[in-house]
Amino acid sequence: MIREIYKPFHRHVYVLQESYLAPEFLEIVTFSKCENASMDRLPKSIVQLAAPRTYRIPVFTEEFCRDFIEELENFEQSEAPKGRPNTMNNYGVLLNELGFDATFLTPLREAYLCPVASLLFSDCGGDTLDSHKAFVVKYALQQDLDLSYHYDNAEVTLNVSLGKDFTEGSLYFGDMRQVPISETECVEIGHETTHGLLHRGQHMHGALPLTSGQRWNLIIWMRSSVVRNQLCPMCNKKPELVEGDGFADGFTREAPAPSANTDSCVVI
Fold first, then answer.
1. pTM of the full predicted structure?
2. CA separation (Å) from 8 to 116, 187, 205, 215, 245?
């Protein structure tokens, strides 16, 4: 239905080009692919933040971010049907519905993000990422202003600040989801346009209220079937699987489908 109704404004943003990527990001990817790459030799463009194992990296160019937001705004103003990212975000775009998966997001994950995640998060699935869910969230006055404390349905998350002009709305990070909030001290981390935050999906975090302007963020939940086939990160159980479309939350079939009255996770 979207393909029939919606006419893209910037068709070029649907196909990943290296020219969209920041030169420093390409250097990070090249380093991550080296045989002698190690955590004690990280490039200066990988900034280790106050929250444990949370990193800021340059990702896109300013020109790409501008064109990407213009495309999303054009889609928002269209009559095309629109799914929303999740139960917590009421404004934003599911990028697979708009046609970004095959030509933009999958190449971005496979060729560029996987080597970086393999270096930084090999102990929690970063070296076996084989699927993703990607969406853009929008924060603005009279719309979503903040996001409550939560963890992601992901092994590794990339959160890129695309723009626009805004004030406040910083992210805050606590501890891993197994740690009670009463034992957690949160740290605040600001946004830098064109830059992304890389962190473990099970790392608890939230967004503080926006006070002016609009903020658009690209979120990529990257998933490892090797990890989640053993333990579902949402129900905390060995997954029992049913057929699903697309990446289907990153599970792959390892056992017969469960009976209809069983709580189930969704399989590719």
1. 0.92
2. 31, 39, 34, 22, 25
